[in-house]
Each structure stands twice: as structure tokens, then as C-alpha cells.
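Case study 2.
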Amino acid sequence: MLVERLPAVPASARGAIFPALLDAVGAAARRLHRVDGPLALGYPWGGRPPGAPAALGCFLNTLVHAVPTRPATDLEALCDDWWDDLDHAGTPFDEVVRAARVAGSPWSGGLDAMLTFEDLQRRPPLVLGGVPGREVHLGGRPLAAPTAVSASHGEELTVRLAWDDERFPAADAEAAFADLLAVLSRHL
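Prediction:
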């Protein structure tokens, strides 16, 4: 796993973090997969509304973002695409795959990359029995996609890249991570 800790994004630009991550992960996926066509980037979306009672669990669905063949030059347009994704957040992933197949798409439902993001400034840590949860990263676990990026934004922006090392050599993953960080830096 590769890890980079970046300065926190100012409050005025907080809304740009996730779209910038979508584009940056897309750059990393394009580097690793070396394909001319679009890629499928999955990301979980859901949560609990602010002020909701404490409860275990939340709404969570995997959304699919079509990674374009080139990085975005206009973050505002990328935000519009992301909002289009969110319009379908209530549609179960399996239904999206089924609809794509019925429409004749060759997409199998497999994801080329996954992105998870946690805004630590907006979400209080989960507490169970009065004990706050803590984040633990375990290496060697199977990935839901050949490339996975997790990011958390609190006092800093921490970005992690994991990859299927049987499919991608470490040097390729390091180059993809450099692409990811360059695109992220350009947007933020």
C-alpha cells in the first residue's frame, strides 16, 4: 500500500475534494489499466443525515462513475457528472448491472477501481457501548477491484492506494500513485 499525507483542504474548497478524488483515481486507473475506453470506478455512498439518532448501520450503496479517457480540465463539469451519479444513489448496484445488460452493454458489472472517502470533519466517530471506534488498516486483504484508493480528510488529507500485485507491478502502481497525486494537487 502507498500512503501520502497532504495538508488539509481549506473549508472553502471542501466540496471539491470528492470530485477531485474521482478524477485523480481515474488518472491512476488509466495508468494501470492502459486502455483507451472508459473505466468503471465504484464508490460507496450513503451515511446518516446530520442530527440523526445514534444507530449502528446506515444506508450504503455502490455507485459507478464512468472514468473518461482523459483527466478533467473543468472540475465544475466533473461535479455535474458526480451529481448525476448521486441522482441514482437509491438504485441498488445489482439493478444497475442488470439494466446495463438488458440495454446490450458489454459491461459485466466488474469494477476497474474503487474509491472510499471519509470526511472526518463532518462525521463524528462511531461509538459502541461508550467506546469510540478506531481506524485500522490491514494489509493483504482481498480488494473489491484491482485498484483501491481510500482517502480521509480531517486535520490532513490522507490518501492510500492498494492494488492487485499479481496484476500490476509495484513500479506501475507507484507511477499511478504519482499521477493520482499530481491530478489531486492540480484540482485542490
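The beta strands are 2-7, 39-47, 59-67, 113-119, 127-128, 131-132, 147-153, 156-163.
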